[in-house]
Amino acid sequence: MKIVETPDSAYAHINGWRCEGFKVGLVPTMGALHAGHLSLVERSRSECDYTAVSIFVNPTQFGPHEDFSKYPRTLEDDLRQLSNLDVDLVFAPQNTSLYPDGFSCFVGTPKVAQPLEGIHRHDHFAGVTTIVLKLMNIMPANVAYFGMKDYQQLAVIRRMVEDLNVPIQVAGCPTVRESDGLAMSSRNRYLSPEGRQKALCLSKALNFAADAIASGQTAVSEIEASMQKLLVENGADSIDYARIVDPDWLTDISTITGPVVALIAAHVEKTRLIDNRVIELEN
Amino acid sequence: MKIVETPDSAYAHINGWRCEGFKVGLVPTMGALHAGHLSLVERSRSECDYTAVSIFVNPTQFGPHEDFSKYPRTLEDDLRQLSNLDVDLVFAPQNTSLYPDGFSCFVGTPKVAQPLEGIHRHDHFAGVTTIVLKLMNIMPANVAYFGMKDYQQLAVIRRMVEDLNVPIQVAGCPTVRESDGLAMSSRNRYLSPEGRQKALCLSKALNFAADAIASGQTAVSEIEASMQKLLVENGADSIDYARIVDPDWLTDISTITGPVVALIAAHVEKTRLIDNRVIELEN
After folding, report:
1. What ipTM does this complex have?
2. Residues of chain B contacting A138 with CB distance shorter than 8 Å
3. Shortest Cα distance from B118 to chain A (angstroms)?
4. Residue B121 and residue B114: Cα distance in Å, rounded?
5. Which of A15, A105, A163 is closest, CB to CB, to B160?
6. Number of CB pairs < 8 Å for A and B?
7. Does B54 touch chain A (CB under 8 A)?
8. pLDDT (0 to 100) of residue A283
9. Within 13 Å and on the Cβ side, how many CA atoms surround A158?
10. What is the pLDDT of residues A112-142, one digit of tens each?
């Protein structure tokens, strides 16, 4: 497994593989790898000739009062896990090589970035589109793999790639969960044992929404109100949103008539957690 | 000469040449080709194995009261000229294939976009960075050629390419002038015969600045005041700016101590003209 620190070196390796006609998969991560990340790597390994992973805690996607400085950094352990999965290349750059002095050109965001996270984490998605486009240029793979746990992020990246004609295929991969339903997240390690139990309120509320829709409820505002109640009763200290929206554009809907996505962002203890569930109408 | 209309077709041709190991040059244009554009094509022809030209009047870089609708469109004549120069591929897309319904993700601008044109043509450079990045993705050449007549645009594109790690080399090519000094521009054809004479005020003012600096003047504000006077006396109806600034960052300077660039934007009749001259200190 090659470990490279500079953009030029990462580009040379991956462009070299591409020129030889091989299919290359890219898995962009912020490290602190868990089974969710590893499922992306395994998907890439099964579909591509070469798999490259980036590990970079991207400062521009964190707000001024968010957890950039305390975000878990576990590089040695990450590299060991990736090596065990026969990853071909890891790009683990320094901040200054991706954001040198004088850096000032960000990528903007598509409209789908505006609701939900866009309201609660201002400028977050501009940091995401910027780093993802940079990584796609530095690591010009055929396919880039992203987890569906960050549902809106995936939608934002899909639109960015389409609007800016980035020549890469974007693949979304299912959320990996603990056996009790908690979505895997690097931030779960912030939780106390008690908070870890309370954190189940997110998946419980999403399952409630799916059951309500399966049982024929169609009034979105009523289901959302029940989700909020369920979150608070089961351990959420505050709720940023608990919404049911259009699965492609994340726009408001009032009545269920087709597939939707339910999305939640809530604070448990001092940790902000997100989760979502796509809900299809059964026939 | 291949003429293609769709992004997919342009990408397939150029990526194909790249994969075969050939060097490809890209010349992005808005058509209405003149000797300035053709000099870019000739430079690419001399340096690259294949030369691709795009012709697209990019709506997003025009302001609401600017000349998008009347901008000259001379596709048949453009294609004839490019064919005569043995260009390999022309990409001439429709608006809707580059900006389909739902398009919403623009590229931002680097800091060097803020002064001068950035003040007088709000949002202009966001349109430029967006279309240039799109074209660089659709036409993944080794080198992209731009004219130095649009000096600030070239600086903006250089920073965008560097900040976003776009894997392409940016080449700036000298401004081509008429025999009397007028910089070639597709907008020169808006001028009446009388306006065509008045338009020489720009190159005259730039030459004055170069002479003043060569003769030892160092006070930027005094030279700028003289440039403005000279512009008005020689036919400019109004002046957006007539400035002497740092050649790399286009930031203000007060005293000449090294190389500078003088830049002018002025209206002659109803036509907005720009021109510039890099001025080195003689030893």
Report:
1. 0.97
2. 165
3. 14
4. 10
5. A105
6. 77
7. no
8. 61
9. 17
10. 999 999 999 999 999 999 999 999 999 999 9
Active site residue B37: yes
Is A108 at the interface with chain B, CB within 8 A?
yes
- What residues in chain A have per-residue pLDDT under 50? none
Per the listing, tokens 């319904």 go with B101
From the number of C-beta atoms within 10 Å of its C-beta (0-12, 13-18, 19+), residue B64 rates as exposed
Question: Shortest CB distance from B134 goes to which of A7, A109, A164?
Answer: A164
Taking only the tens of pLDDT, chain B with its 283 residues reads 999 999 999 999 999 999 999 999 999 999 999 999 999 999 999 999 999 999 999 999 999 999 999 999 999 999 999 999 999 999 999 999 999 999 999 999 999 999 999 999 999 999 999 999 999 999 999 999 999 999 999 999 999 999 999 999 999 999 999 999 999 999 999 999 999 999 999 999 999 999 999 999 999 999 999 999 999 999 999 999 999 999 999 999 999 999 999 999 999 999 999 999 999 987 6
Closest-CA residue of B relative to A161 is B105
Distance between CA atoms of residues B112 and B108, nearest Å = 12
Sign for the pseudo-dihedral over CA of A89, A91, A92, A93: positive
Q: What is the pTM of this model?
A: 0.97
- Identify the pLDDT of residue A231: 98
Query: B164: nearest CA in chain A?
Result: A134
Which residues 6+ apart lie within 8 Å of A109 measured at CB? A118, A125, A126, A129, A156, A160, B105
Domains and CATH numbers, chain A: 2-173 (3.40.50.620), 186-278 (3.30.1300.10)
Tokens describing residue A144: 């880039």
Q: For residue B92, give both structure tokens.
A: 């001439």
* Rounded distance between C-alpha atoms, residue A49 and residue A51, angstroms: 7
| Residue A32 φ/ψ region, left for φ over 0, alpha for ψ in the -120 to 50 degree band, beta for the rest | left
CB A99 within 8 A of CB A82: no
* CA angle (B270, B273, B275) in 5-degree steps: 165
Q: Around Cβ B195, how many Cβ atoms within 10 Å?
A: 17
A129 reaches B (C-beta below 8 A) = yes
B110 contacts B249 by C-beta, under 8 angstroms: no
Say how far residue B233 (Cα) sits from the centre of its chain. Answer: 27
Residue A40 confidence (pLDDT): 98
Residue B111 and residue B97: Cα distance in Å, rounded?
A: 30
User: Is B77 near chain A, with CB under 8 Å?
Assistant: no
β-strands B89-91, B238-245 pairing: unpaired
Is residue A216 less than 8 Å (CB to CB) from chain B?
A: no
Pick from B104, B110, B140: which is nearest to A105 by CB? B110
Q: Which two tokens stand for residue A1?
A: 């497994």
